Sequence to fold (374 residues):
Amino acid sequence: MTGRILQNPWRLLLAINAAVIIGVFVHKIQLPPYVPYIHLLVDYHFGFIKRALIGAVVALFTDKVPVWLVFALGGATWLATSALYARLFQKTFGFTTRTLPLFVFTAGSPFFLKNFMHTLGHFDIYGCALAIILLLMPAGSLLFVATAALFSIVLVLIHHIHLLMYVPTIITIVVLRHYLTYGSNRSNVAFGAVAVLIISALFFAAQFLGTMPIPEADFVAYLKSRMADPARTDLLQFAYIWYQPLAKEVADTWGRLPHNILGVPVFVLLIWLHTPLWRYLARLIGALASETHRRLVVAALIGVSLAYVVMFAMVFDYSRWISNWAVCMFLILHAVKMLPAKQEAALIPAEDQKTNVCGLILTLIPRVGIVRPF
Fold:
């Protein structure tokens, strides 16, 4: 019995992952929700500003925002995203003994659902959830492109950094699932190009015109008026981010670089532990029926990665960025699997000793973190 579990441990690893996620949640609710809470307070009361869409939606339902709403809203989003990914995996690969290692390396990765639990309330997960919906939707009509454009606009309004974080992956999904699968014509190419221009213009408006137009003291006073407990002034310490220009963000990032760069070897090790998954992605790309498709997929992977390089230079939440980059790779893997193939790519082996060890280590790692590893 024990020997069989050691040879094929994937069901056990899924159970361990579930236990680890519960542990991360218990730890998370004991921490002060600084940035996620203030995002629920900021709305469009003073006009168009950046990072205000979620707060504006919350304001439609309540005038006073309790702290527990961070965990309720974040938890509901996490559950929805987990369910969406399970449905996506079932649609793309199915749940069988042969596909369990692949599920453990994606859903059980410390980059993915476990880290989203640690960053509960942050805005990253919204990009992931909307990208998964696009992977589940029928992609044959222009409605698919329009939905992707709408999702991208929503993400930029939630936080403009989504233009680098998940919008490139959404564009990749649209190209792979719509333009490569169903063909390009003048109308759908023009529609896509106009959508990209609108999304880019919105990003620049949020980045350079979305600064809070009133003095910070007045802004903080307004935020207090929306708090269920105005005495919790410690939760407002990040109000300055609605005033901080891009140059200051970049300067702060480079000022912290000597210390934060020490985490890069850990990130490299975590990525290396996913080697069985990356090999499977390479096999998927190699099995595509079209050479053009193969080249475009590789170009898309490089493009998405370069967007994260730009983010690394601008904002110092390195653990979040590397985690979301990995999630984007997981989602693109699903999109690649949906393209026509000349042959079936071999799945991650279920009884390979090295693969089992990598899967076990990744299962036991509870999260990657927000700024520095762990």
Notes: Residues 25 and 354 are 30 Å apart (CA to CA). The chain has a mean pLDDT of 93. The first helix runs from residue 2 to 7.
